[in-house]
Amino acid sequence: MGLNTTPSSERVHIGIFGKRNAGKSSLINALTGQSLAIVSDVAGTTTDPVYKAMELLPLGPVMMIDTPGLDDIGELGALRVRKAMQVMNKCDIAVVVVDSTEGLTEEHTELLNRLTAKNIPHVVVMNKFDLAPEITVRPNYHYVSSKTGAGIHELKETIARLTPSGDTGKRIVGDLIAPNDLVVLVVPIDSAAPKGRLILPQQQTIRDILESGAVSVVTRETELPQTLSSLGTNPRLVITDSQAFAKVSKDTPEDIPLTSFSILFARYKGELAEAVRGVKMLDCIQEGDRILIAEGCTHHRQCDDIGTVKLPRWIRNHTGVEPQFEFTSGGEFPDDLSPYKLIIHCGACMLNEREMKYRIQCAVDAGIPITNYGIAIAYMTGILERSIQPLPDITL
Predict the structure, then answer these.
(1) Which of 184, 245, 253, 368 lies at 20 to 30 Å from 259 by C-alpha?
(2) What are phi and psi of 382, to 5 degrees?
(3) Cβ-contact 388, 249 below 8 angstroms
(4) Would you tell me how many other CB atoms lie within 10 Å of the CB of residue 230?
């Protein structure tokens, strides 16, 4: 994918951490050669994490995250520090910026311990080195000046070496199909569908099919029977939007493998096995149990939104009781998961793999079952076994 179309979830996420006025924003500008971050002598200019999609050579497309100062003060400052700490959960690499004239402090030590515990590759950058020429140079730190540009090139090379390789060999669907295979994609066009475009999972799946040398055929669920009959041969796979699972399963002959975009993305993000295990909790939901429905993006909710309307309705019908539903979206995810009986997460197309695995691990550590939109819908419609059959090493 080109720079302009690389989804944020597929970019290398680089978090910039440090105290107020350490020069975090100036460092971002120096690394990119652009005035992308607001720079000020006033401590605490960055009050919330700021995400900047850009190209950083020699890495290519990255997501730079400028965070609030670790030493922010007051009640509001504590909330800002908490948001900065949450950024860690999505970082592929962390850059810890230290004011050379001040040196390492307790806040830096605590941050470095957290990064080590989370196994996040990181580099310590002693910024403003031009203002502290007498400082003792330590070999495991990088000494730079955002103002003069000294040491910036070497720092970029270090970041490139620390960042995990982008070629993991993982595919959305490419490993399930062969060149010249036919793959039918079922895309409902209803009131919740975005105007004039396909949503990201659909776009990425089509791209992966094309890269495999296979052929994608896109249809609505209302035209699926006619589409299948007109192909002349059975497709290798049918992939549907989870909302249309029941109808698509009914209209797709049993000898044609069937799955969903959401299930494929759960596999792609490394959460599928846990989602299949967690879905069985739907049979144990009782009156008043709290269920968290979490989405990885923020969007304008339609009148029949899947997360806030359709899923709760399907769950009520399946369980015969009235649970308490709570909803989160975007970067928000509760620190304390203990009140919930079950977590149902979206396909996470807007979250990178590290953040999604962090959320899953939080649920596992808390002993709370976690599942996925597509898995939950397939389970409640009685077709989960069929929908995971095309996927290797996954059983109900």
Answers:
(1) 368
(2) 80, 20
(3) no
(4) 9
pLDDT tens readout for residues 54-91: 877 777 788 889 998 888 877 787 888 888 888 888 88
Contacts by 385-390 with C-beta closer than 8 Å and gap 24+? 386/249, 386/254, 386/258, 387/245, 387/249, 387/258, 387/259, 387/260, 387/263, 388/259, 388/263, 388/272, 388/276, 389/257, 390/176, 390/237, 390/257, 390/258, 390/259
- Cα 226 to Cα 316: distance, rounded to the nearest angstrom: 33
54 or 280, higher pLDDT: 280
Phi, psi of 116 (to 5 degrees): -65, -45
HEC sequence for 249-270? HHHCCCCCCEEEHHHHHHHHCC
First to last CA, the chain: 35
CA distance 386 to 379: 10
For residue 239, what are the β-bridge partners? 185, 259
